Amino acid sequence: MKHEELDEALDSFGDALASATRVTPGNALRPEDIAVDGVKPSEEVARYALTLGDDALILAQRMSHWISRAPELEEDVALGNIALDILGHARSFLTYAGLAWDKTEDELAYWREEEEFTSLWIVEQPNGHFGVTIIRQLIVSIFQNLLYKQLAQSKDETLAAISAKAVKEVDYHRDHAIQWTIRLGMGTEESASKMRHALEILWPYVDEMFRDEEVHQDLAGIAVLPSTLRGAWDEEITAVLADAGLEIPATGQAMAYGRRGEHSEHLGYLLAEMQVLARKHPGASW
Amino acid sequence: MAPTTPQEPGLSAVPSYEEEQSQARFDALIDQDSRVEPRDWMPEKYRKTLSRQISQHAHSEIIGMQPEANWITRAPSLKRKSILMAKVQDEAGHGLYLYSAAETLGTTRDEYNEQLLSGKAKYSSIFNYPARTWADMGAIGWLVDGAAIANQVPLCRASYGPYGRAMVRVCKEESFHQRQGFEILLSLSRGTEAQKKMAQDAINRFYEPSLMMFGPPDDQSPNSQQSMAWKIKRFSNDELRQRFVGMIAEQVKVLGLTLPDPQLHFDEEKKQWIHKDLNWDEFMAVIKGNGPANAQRLERRREAHREGAWVREAAAAYAAKQARSEVA
Q1: A64 contacts in B (CB within 8 Å)?
Q2: Using N-to-C axis directions, what is the helix angle for B78-103 and B65-72, rounded to 10°?
Q3: Which residue of B has its CA nearest to A60?
């Protein structure tokens, strides 16, 4: 069929653009643009971009599970929005990383094995109840907000452009997590107790976020050394927890090395679900 | 309804002068194709009909999220995942503004939600079929959303203002949904043998249920007459079904696939589409709760409500504390 014929057939659906705005924000940098116009990154930059893409992808996969299961409809919309934003970040970072290896975002997402994923343990932790998801969001969104703010100044223009867009969205995710942390921390005895429990089970994965790894070396002016974010992160989260009547729990820290491909037991199941259909049809396009 | 003054049997059935005036104003609004607004007087039956219809519509959006949410975590490409998430999220949004429109009729969202969870309220029966394969995301978008659009475009002119206005917004987004469904099927139809087979199978399963979304044939749909007189409904069930089947009969050709209805054709003499006999026994059985997924769909909603109770209680408690501290 000719292109025009197809366009005509699709036009019979009428004004089909209404909600597509959320998928392709007009002036934002889209993965498709990066794929077409992107400058091929060096191996080192690609490996760094991959870590950012993997964090976002795994977190988006977790968050997307909430849609149709949230405590109220407004939260179905809010959590869905957040998941959608984060998936957008993942797609951009993965597309950019893939340029170095002639791989698409989908090849990286669907055809790598567990040990090839470089994401942090915190993002693969299960959703648990709503409070666990909120604490995970609090921990990660404050981190990503600090990270992307700095990365928006990166000498690497693509990383800077992706981060400049992402930071605006993550700022909203952070606000959402903070508001809910306070509401639930100060709500009822039951909700406060659930939030204390959520902090206890997630806190062991905090240190890993700030560990400088090999992937961060030799990228001065391009990458952000995670260790440099710790002070600001500690300060911010301590203040939020104080406002919520909560405290930093006295837990140990897990020996977590996601950046090196060593993951918790949870990632395998997440990937099995995410990749199952794509892998059933090798070479198919969708 | 029982008379309120038993000492004077029959008297309450006689409308007062004020009631007659109100009825006349209402009738004039309908005659002039004007909009009835929440503050206007309206007959109790009109209010009830709308309250039921709009809330059922809202429930359908909410329950309708489930079959598609079933494939978000397994979507076969990140772009498809992203579009599907946006779509399901839109449906939550549609539910929200339809509940708002329904609330203007004097029933709260909590009450509507209770009717849904208790099983008292109905929602579109089509969502009681399982979404078995990825191709179902295509068939649901193309056929189910397509039928919904055919139903809903005329509702943008419904006589009740808040409903009509909500529908304008819903329809815009629905047409994006239908298009993305069609595009999924188009990709599959141009793909591998397994993908083509998956697409055809999904169309086979959703064709008949989507035709039944317009409701029973006109001669078996007594309530339709009143809804049309009130200009809530603008076209009959059969008229809408005709329009829809004519549209998909053309579109399926672009896909290079078929509708599971060998006798489907346009009868030039009768000037109408002739399609297979629809299985109304199955339709009624699904409405009564015996579809493949009725139990699952309701339980998911109940579970979300149950699991979220502590969150809503905490939010309410926090809001109350804030209000107190502002007063103090």
Answers
A1: 72-73, 81, 85
A2: 160
A3: B73
